[in-house]
Each structure stands twice: as structure tokens, then as C-alpha cells.
UniProtKB/TrEMBL annotation:
Organism: Minutocellus polymorphus
Xref: SMART domains: FAS1
Region (Disordered): 311-339
Name of protein: FAS1 domain-containing protein
Transmembrane spans: none
């Protein structure tokens, strides 16, 4: 199957301020020998202002994909100035090997599977990117996702490559993997409402919203419902025990499914879980039913059972003080989920 992609090259916020820079980029592209016979990667590599995006493409292992003739590609390739406008530390983090899959996801978010020239754009047009998230095109002014202006007047539009078309936009586009924390994503999914209530009750929201990287094996509401009757309510009234169990679902680092191997992995509560990979990934006796949900501070794997530390392999709910009622589940919202 052949794909058509476009290269959107984000520049800075103002066409006037960056007119000279834009003209220099266009001139560099125009001076590339027979640009229509050069790939997106070759054109980007020939322009000094694209050195950062080329570094990112290389680090993500996507240089060959954007150089070959196996298809035509849409890649958003921000110039150096657009990367410099990102919050401090974002780029440095993404370029570290442990954030490899997140970096790939950011680049995939700058890619479309169809060719859309400037004349094909329409107000409110939605397009699915290669990371499966959607971008929205608006025309007054022409822009992507509200704030990434398409630089039609600056002339950086419909630039031909052998494997795509290049358009300029004014900002780097950040997908969920770069903009929403583990807590944000869980709070935005109703299937995790019990988990989110437990995280709030245990005071772990900040810990799971920090820099990471962390990997969370996240039980669904159905997994909590399968516990013995009264267990969830009792745990909400026993914060130390609840914290012990929740931290048993978290490991340090970005444990992508492609890197998981059978064996023991230490969790944040100090005990280990057993990973098995025969016929699908399992954590102890829980199945991973959805893998590799990327967050800005780690990875979520959805599991179908609540996993319990060895000492808490309970068939009855934990005992609670008969004179003290269980604490109610919190009702206030955690950090808002990204759309």
C-alpha cells in the first residue's frame, strides 16, 4: 500500500517577525538540486533551520522511512525556532533514549496518510494523523489545531518532494503523549473512575503527575468490581493499605510492550510482579488488554484484574475499625484530561 503524506514545517508565531527566516528556508529548499526528486528527509537535511527536526527523526529511527520510495509521506517537520519555543526541557527529554516511543509518537502526529494541498483545505476539516489522533484545519486564518498557522502568504506551502508535499505551520503540534499526564489520561476515561478515586484518596495524584517516567498497570472499573464485595470501600478507609496496593501497580521507567520480557519487575512498593509474554502479556494473573497508552510522564497498560501484593492475596475484604466509617470516594476532579 502506498501512502501520501505532507510535510508541515512549523515556523514562529509572526510572519512579519520571521519573514527573513522564512525566505531563507524557501530559498534553501528551492536551491536543492531538483527538489522534486529529493525526499522529505533529504530536503529537511539540506536546510540548516531543520537541523533539530532531522536530529529528532534520526533519534526516532524514522530517517529511512522518510527517505525511501515505498510511499509518499506527510511529516510535520518544525524548524529550529519552533522547537526553541517549546517549554524548557521538553525537547531534551524527548531526545533521550528512554523516551524513544514518545518521540516517535510526536513525529507521527506530524504526519497524514493522504496528500492535502492548500487548495484542498476546508474550514473544520478533520484529518487523522499517523499516531491515530485527529488534527483540525480552520481557514480564518488558515491554521492547524487553532494555533499553528499555515504560512500560505509566506510562500512555504505546496513545496514538492519526491515523497510528499511541504506546508509551513507556525507551531510544533503536541499529541496527548506530550501534553497529558498519566492522571490526565485516566481522569478523562470513565472506565478508570474507580482507579482515579483511589489515587485521589491515597494522595498519589501529584506523584503520578510528575516528570516520570513511570509505567502504570491500570485496572478498569470492572477489575475493581470483581474484587470481593466491600473490598473497595474498605480500602478507601485504609489509606496505608490502599497506597500499598496502588503502588504495586506502578514501576519505574517507560516499559513499552515491545521491551517487556518474562521475569520479575520491582514495583514502587518494593514487591515484584511477574511478567509473562506467552500468548499475550500478563502481569501476575492479570491480562494486559490495552497496551502502550503514552502519557507525557510515562506509559499506561490497561489490565483486567487488580493485582495484589503477595501478603494481600485476599479473598475477604481487609478488616476496618468497626467504630470508623470508611472514607467516601472523592468527588472532586483530578487534572483535566486532554481531548
Amino acid at each position: 500500500r502506498r501512502y501520501r503524506y505532507q510535510l508541515y514545517i512549523p515556523l514562529q508565531d509572526s510572519n512579519m517577525i520571521f519573514a527573513k527566516r522564512t525566505l531563507a528556508v524557501v530559498a534553501a529548499i528551492a536551491s536543492t538540486a531538483n527538489a522534486q526528486n529529493s525526499s522529505i528527509y533529504e530536503i529537511a537535511s539540506s536546510v540548516p533551520d531543520f537541523s533539530t527536526v532531522v536530529t529528532a527523526i534520526d533519534a526516532a529511527g524514522l530517517d529511512e522511512a522518510l527517505s525511501g520510495d515505498g510511499g509518499t509521506y506527510t511529516v510535520f517537520a518544525p524548524p529550529n525556532s519552533a522547537f526553541e519555543a517549546l517549554p524548557e526541557g521538553v525537547l531534551d527529554k524527548l531526545l533521550k533514549p528512554e523516551w524513544f516511543y514518545h518521540l516517535q509518537d510526536v513525529i507521527f502526529y506530524h504526519a497524514l496518510g493522504t496528500e492535502v494541498r492548500s487548495t484542498d483545505l476546508s474550514d473544520g476539516l478533520e484529518a487523522e494523523t499517523l499516531n491515530t489522533e485527529t488534527i483540525v484545519i480552520d481557514l480564518d486564518p488558515p491554521r492547524v489545531n487553532e494555533n499553528a498557522e499555515i504560512l500560505i502568504d509566506a510562500g512555504l506551502v505546496d513545496v514538492e518532494a519526491s515523497n510528499g508535499v511541504i506546508h509551513g505551520v507556525s507551531n510544533v503540534l503536541l499529541p496527548t503523549s506530550a501534553s497529558s499526564s498519566i492522571v490526565d489520561i485516566a481522569a478523562g476515561n470513565p472506565d478508570f473512575s474507580t482507579l482515579v478515586a483511589a489515587v485521589k484518596a491515597a494522595g498519589l495524584v501529584d506523584a503520578l503527575s510528575g516528570d516520570g517516567p513511570l509505567t502504570v498497570f491500570a485496572p478498569t472499573n470492572a477489575a475493581f468490581d470483581a474484587l470481593p464485595e466491600g473490598t473497595v470501600e474498605a480500602l478507601l478507609g485504609d489509606i496505608p493499605k490502599l497506597t500499598e496496593i496502588l503502588t504495586y501497580h506502578v514501576v519505574s521507567g517507560n516499559a513499552h510492550s515491545s521491551t517487556l520480557a518474562a521475569g520479575s519487575v520491582e514495583t514502587l512498593n518494593g514487591a515484584t510482579v511477574e511478567i509473562s509474554t506467552d500468548g499475550g502479556v500478563m502481569v501476575n494473573d492479570a491480562n494486559v488488554v490495552a497496551a502502550d497508552i503514552l502519557a507525557s510522564n510515562g506509559i499506561i497498560h490497561v489490565i483486567d484484574k487488580v493485582i495484589l501484593p503477595p501478603a494481600d492475596d485476599m479473598t475477604e475484604p481487609p478488616a476496618s475499625d468497626a467504630t470508623e466509617a470508611p472514607a467516601p470516594a472523592p468527588t472532586s476532579g483530578a487534572a483535566g484530561a486532554s481531548a
